[in-house]
Design goal:
By secondary structure, the protein is an alpha+beta fold. The chain is 40% helix and 14% strand. Belongs to the bacterial solute-binding protein 1 family.
C-alpha cells in the first residue's frame, strides 16, 4: 500500500490567514509597512515548522509575529517565562503555556484576561471541556486553548494477541504489565525520569483510583494534601509492580516521551511494547516508515494499535492525562489589543487542524475532529479515542502553587524503583505539606 504524501504546511494554514482577515482585519492583511510593531511569541518545540508558518500567516499590515523558541522541558519553559514576566518584560507578547502553569501566571497578574465578546469567542461551546477548564481562573478567561493533549495506550496488535490480552475491553495497569512480562523481550514504556511527565503518570494513577494529590486548591498554600490515601497507595502499587516485573525498559528511571519510541518496532524483530504516550505518536510512526526506529513497512505500521489509558483499579474508569498548549498574552505587552487579536488567529479551527494534521497535536475544539482534513489524516476510531480521553480525562491539580506541588512529588517518588505503597504516599504527603507551609525547601 502506497503511503499518501502529507499535506504541505502552507496549504493547511491558508484558511487561517483568511480567518485573520475577516471583518475589521480585512484591510490589515494586504502587506507590511516598516516600523510596525513585532509581537514576540514564545513557543515550545512541538510543531515548530507549523507554528512558524502560522506566525507568518497571522501577521498583518499592523503587526508582525516573531517566533522565539523556549527550552524543551516544560519546567524550564515555565522558569524562563516566569523570570521575564516577574521583571514586567514588555516584549513578552504571546506565550505557549503548559496548562498547569496557567493558574500560577494568572494568579501573579502576568496574563491579560480576554473579556467580553473576545472571551466568548476564545471559549465557546465548541471547546472540549477538558481544554476549556485549563484557561479559566477566578471566572475569567486568561488564555486561549490552542491544542489539547492526552495519553493513550499504544501497542503492537501482534504482541497483545500473543499475550492473550483482549484490547477491545478496558484493561488495567496490572493486566498490561503482566501481559508484557509474559512475552520474552516485551516491555512497558512510560515516562519516569525526574521531571513533569513523571508527575503526569502519578497523577493519572491517583485520579484513576478515585483520589487526588491535593484538594481545595483554591485555598492556595492551605490546600488539603490528599495523596496519602488508598488511591495514592494504589498508584504506588502500580509503579512498584512495573519496577519489579522484568518488563521495564533499560532506561526506566530516566525514561521520557521519546526514549521508548524505538522499542515499538525494534530492529532485531522483537515483539515490541505497550507504551503510554501522547497523541503525537501516530504521526511519528507514520512519518518514519522504513527508517531506523520506525515501522519497517506499511504492514508493520498497521500492527500499531491503540486503546484507552489503562485503569488503575479494576472497575474504575481511567483518567487519561490532560495536557496541550494554551496561548497566554503577557500583561505587560505594549500591544495588548494586537496580541489578543493574534491569539485568536493562532488558535482558530483552521490553525488547530494544521497542527493536528502536520504534527499530531490534537484540537481543543470538538468540531475540528469532524473536519475532512482530520478524517483523512487519522483513523476514525483513533479520533474518537482522543476526543473521549480529553473530555473524560483527569487534570493535574489546578493551583497557583503547582510548581511546588509537582517538584515536591517528584522529589519523593523518584526514583520509581524506590516507590512503596506502604511508605511513599505518606512520606510525600508530609513533605508536600511542609513545602506548602514554607517549612521545607525543594
Amino acid at each position: 500500500m502506497e503511503r499518501r504524501p502529507r499535506r504541505p504546511v502552507r496549504r493547511a494554514l491558508a484558511a487561517t490567514a483568511a480567518l485573520a482577515c475577516g471583518s475589521a482585519l480585512l484591510s490589515a492583511c494586504a502587506g507590511g509597512d516598516s516600523g510596525k510593531p513585532t509581537l514576540n511569541w514564545y513557543i515550545n518545540p512541538d510543531g515548530q515548522e507549523t507554528l512558524t508558518q502560522l506566525a507568518e500567516q497571522c501577521s498583518t499590515d499592523e503587526y508582525d509575529i516573531a517566533i522565539q523558541l523556549l527550552p524543551t522541558s516544560a519546567t524550564d519553559q515555565r522558569t524562563q517565562l516566569a523570570r521575564r514576566l516577574a521583571a514586567r518584560d514588555s516584549s513578552t507578547d504571546l506565550m505557549s503555556l503548559d496548562p498547569v502553569f496557567v493558574p500560577e501566571f494568572a494568579n501573579a497578574g502576568w496574563l491579560a484576561p480576554f473579556e467580553g465578546d473576545l472571551a466568548d469567542q476564545v471559549v465557546d461551546d465548541d471547546v472540549l471541556a477538558g481544554a476549556a477548564e485549563t484557561v479559566m481562573w477566578e471566572d475569567q478567561v486568561v488564555a486561549a486553548p490552542q491544542w489539547a493533549n492526552t495519553q493513550v495506550l499504544w501497542f503492537r496488535r501482534s504482541l497483545a494477541e500473543q499475550a492473550g490480552l483482549d484490547m477491545s475491553q478496558p484493561v488495567t495497569w496490572d493486566q498490561v504489565i503482566e501481559a508484557a512480562a509474559s512475552v520474552d523481550g516485551a516491555t512497558v514504556g512510560v515516562q519516569a525520569d525526574r521531571y513533569e511527565a513523571y508527575v503526569v503518570w502519578i497523577n493519572a494513577l491517583v485520579e484513576g483510583a478515585g483520589g487526588s494529590i491535593v484538594e481545595d486548591t483554591e485555598a492556595g498554600r492551605e490546600a488539603e494534601v490528599t495523596i496519602d490515601s488508598e488511591a495514592g497507595r494504589e498508584a504506588a502499587a502500580v509503579i512498584q509492580k512495573l519496577a519489579d516485573s522484568g518488563a521495564t525498559q533499560p532506561d526506566f528511571t530516566t525514561s521520557n516521551e521519546g526514549t521508548s519510541l524505538g522499542r515499538m518496532f525494534p530492529e532485531d524483530g522483537g515483539p515490541g511494547e505497550f507504551m503510554n504516550n501522547w497523541t503525537f505518536v501516530y504521526k511519528n510512526y507514520e512519518g518514519t516508515i522504513g527508517t531506523p526506529g520506525g515501522p519497517a513497512d506499511q504492514e508493520a505500521f498497521e500492527d500499531l494499535g491503540w486503546a484507552r489509558y489503562p485503569r488503575t483499579v479494576e472497575g474504575e474508569p481511567s483518567k487519561p492525562p490532560i495536557g496541550g498548549i494554551d496561548i497566554g498574552v503577557g500583561a505587560y505587552s505594549e500591544n495588548l489589543d494586537f496580541a489578543q487579536e493574534a491569539a485568536v488567529c493562532v488558535t482558530s479551527p483552521e490553525a488547530q487542524s494544521a497542527l493536528a494534521v502536520n504534527d499530531g497535536l490534537m484540537p481543543s475544539r470538538a468540531s475540528v475532529y469532524d473536519s475532512p482534513e482530520l478524517q483523512e489524516a487519522y483513523p476514525a476510531d483513533l479520533l474518537d479515542l482522543y476526543r473521549e480521553s480529553i473530555e473524560e480525562g483527569g487534570p493535574r491539580p489546578k493551583s497557583a502553587f503547582y510548581s511546588q506541588i509537582s517538584s515536591a512529588v517528584q522529589s519523593v517518588w523518584h526514583p520509581p524503583t524506590s516507590v512503596s505503597p506502604e511508605s511513599t504516599p505518606e512520606e510525600s504527603a508530609e513533605f508536600l505539606r511542609a513545602v506548602l507551609d514554607g517549612e521545607a525547601l525543594l
